[in-house]
Design brief:
This protein is α/β, with parallel strands linked by helices and 391 residues long. 41% of the residues lie in helices and 13% in strands. The chain folds into 2 domains: 140 residues, Aspartate Aminotransferase, domain 1; 240 residues, Aspartate Aminotransferase, domain 2, CATH 3.40.640.10. The protein contains 14 helices and 12 strands. The strands form 3 sheets. Strands 2-8-7-6-5-3-4 form a 7-stranded mixed beta sheet, sandwiched between helices. It has a 3-stranded antiparallel beta sheet with strand order 9-10-12. It is globular. The structure holds pyridoxal-5'-phosphate.
Length: 391
């Protein structure tokens, strides 16, 4: 059976061009970038090229790019290191209730160390209200961290406006752009951010490599102590093959951005319309327009998300309910609950995240099989029977 992969927000396949550029750096050009002989210089050159490519894609200076092990590390670094560096100034951090756990659990950790955290609410579409950000600021606020695009429902947040407010008030602003980079335009200057997290495996690069943009002049603590790599702020021998992969992947993503956004938006809208037309008692989660080009998140009433996932898997379709990191737990998504969805609807959620490799035929196939799966599962639901009879 052909597999249809529609979980590109969880991870993406490495593109051939990316892999081809990475390959020589495993065994042939294996030098440690800190050494002075030719092998080392070759690796250092590759490191510099990758840093330039990442900087160019974000509208940043190469000196502002620090390589990390991925989105989780970038988020941890930005938030903890800013909190520790500014402890004398204040102890208040503002974030949102719909962040990824890499941000939420980091904030919980800091809370245990005496920091005060405000979790901003969101509206029914998952949007943060800029006025709420203004209201939450106190003279103790040292950091605001708001994600650019949500990983579950795809809602794109008003990050540039929030960054503007932070700038006016002299507060550091971090954005988790892990789901945005490579999918929508990202320019650190336009976004008014001081720090920005990204991760290569979300845009057809390898896993375990990411970057943190730190604006020049921002004084935060180093993350890893050891050698002098990454200007002494993130020590450890650089993972050159992965860094090369990140550089190539971000370059390709930026070059193809308009084309990819157009294709994904078309497939996304086709899938949304197809499913909403063919299934009753179904709801689109997230904002209808301010959403990532490839994100479709729906809640199907009277059915469990997990049951739909298993049935889809039997038809060769890979999707997700909640985020990959939390699937396996039976707790409903914190994002959907924060958007005000009742538990039943949060439990019946499904996320399809479309990637560049997906085709219209694949989308048609999902539109064809999901309504039958839902109908079969609902046969076992007395609640659905009652709803259908209008009781
Ligand atoms: N932030 C967001 C919004 C994400 O979607 C993810 C991954 O799903 C992460 C952070 C973590 O990134 P990584 O898997 O590179 O650690």
């Amino acid at each position: 059976m052909e597999k249809i992969y529609l979980d590109n927000a969880a991870t993406t396949p490495v593109k051939k061009e990316v892999l081809d550029e990475m390959m020589p750096y495993f065994s042939e050009k294996f030098g440690n970038a800190s050494t002075l002989y030719s092998y080392g210089r070759e690796s250092k050159k590759a490191l510099d090229i990758a840093r330039d490519r990442v900087a160019k894609a974000l509208g940043a200076d190469p000196a502002e790019i620090y390589f990390t092990s991925g989105g989780t590390e970038s988020d941890n670094w930005a938030i903890k290191a800013a909190a520790y560096a500014l402890r004398e100034k204040g102890n208040h951090i503002i974030t949102t209730s719909i962040e990824h756990h890499a941000v939420l659990h980091t904030c919980e950790y800091l809370k245990k160390q005496g920091f005060k955290i405000t979790y901003l609410p969101v509206d029914e579409y998952g949007l943060v209200d800029v006025e709420e950000v203004k209201k939450a600021i106190t003279d103790q606020t040292i950091l605001i961290s708001v994600m650019y695009a949500n990983n579950e429902v795809g809602t794109i947040e008003p990050v540039a406006e929030i960054g503007e407010i932070a700038k006016e008030r002299g507060i550091l602003f971090h954005t988790d752009a892990v789901q945005a980079v490579g999918h929508i335009p990202v320019d650190v200057k336009k976004l008014n951010c001081d720090m920005l997290s990204l991760s290569a495996h979300k845009f057809y690069g390898p896993k375990g490599i990411g970057a943190l943009y730190i604006r020049k002049g921002v004084k935060i603590h180093p993350y890893m102590h050891g050698g002098g790599q990454e200007k002494g702020r993130r020590a450890g021998t650089e993972n050159i093959p992965a860094i090369v992969g990140l550089g190539k992947a971000i370059e390709l993503a930026t070059q193809n951005l308009n084309q990819s956004m157009e294709k994904l938006t078309f497939l996304r809208n086709k899938l949304i319309n197809g499913l909403l037309n063919k299934i009753d008692h179904v709801k689109l989660n997230g904002h209808p327009e301010k959403r990532l080009p490839g994100n479709v998140n729906i809640s199907v009433e009277y059915v469990e998300g997990e049951s739909m996932l298993l049935s889809l898997d039997m038809k060769g379709i890979c999707a997700s309910s909640g985020s990959a990191c939390t699937s396996g737990s039976l707790d409903p998504s914190h994002v959907l609950l924060a958007m005000g969805l009742p538990h039943e609807l949060a439990h019946g959620s499904l996320r399809f995240s479309i990637g560049e490799q997906n085709t219209e035929e694949e989308i048609d196939y999902v539109i064809q099989v999901l309504p039958d799966i839902v109908a079969r599962l609902r046969e076992m639901s007395p609640l659905y029977e009652k709803a259908r009879e209008g009781k």
